């Protein structure tokens, strides 16, 4: 497992090299991604803002996620992750936005959407947003949230360092 602090530092360096600000839109992590970034001295040069949108109302009000999307697909969906990432990009000075929405547990899972399901959204200025789905082992809420932070930073790094983003538009 890769160290989250090291990933956050590499992500910030990649943003600096590209002269790009970053934003996050977080649901299941409650701000842990932006906290990992802002734990690093000098991060204010590239971190614009973090949106913590735990409720559906916050997703609508702060990010512009469509109420119709939430009604049709739910908060934990590809469609919502894409709209969260796009909304964070549009409502900030960022050139890259990382978004996460998932079920960290211990409750809230179902057969279709089990505990550990997380949808990641990634938006880069000038490109269509991408979404990627992960189902983490249900090894507890803390584990799922930490793995979500790690994975989000890895996806952001892939987009910034080598352009190898594997999600789908």
TrEMBL record:
Residue ranges of domain CinA C-terminal in the record: 7-155
Gene3D superfamilies linked: CinA-like
Domain of life: Bacteria
InterPro entries the record matches: CinA-like_C (IPR036653), CinA_C (IPR008136)
Name of protein: Damage-inducible protein CinA
Organism annotation: Kumtagia ephedrae
């Amino acid at each position: 497992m890769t160290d989250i602090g090291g990933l956050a530092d590499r992500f910030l360096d990649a943003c600096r090299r590209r002269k790009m600000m970053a934003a996050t839109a977080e649901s299941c992590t409650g701000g842990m991604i932006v906290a990992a970034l802002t734990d690093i001295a000098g991060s204010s040069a590239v971190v614009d803002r973090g949106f913590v949108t735990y409720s559906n109302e916050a997703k609508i009000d702060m990010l512009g996620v469509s109420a119709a999307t939430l009604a049709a697909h739910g908060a934990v969906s590809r469609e919502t992750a894409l709209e969260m990432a796009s909304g964070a990009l549009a409502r900030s000075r960022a050139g890259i936005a990382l978004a996460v929405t998932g079920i960290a547990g211990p409750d809230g899972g179902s057969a279709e959407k089990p505990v550990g399901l997380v949808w990641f959204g990634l938006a880069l200025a000038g490109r269509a947003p991408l979404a990627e789905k992960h189902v983490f082992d249900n090894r507890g809420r803390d584990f799922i949230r930490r793995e979500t932070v790690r994975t989000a930073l890895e996806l952001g790094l892939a987009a910034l360092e080598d352009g190898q983003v594997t999600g789908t538009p």
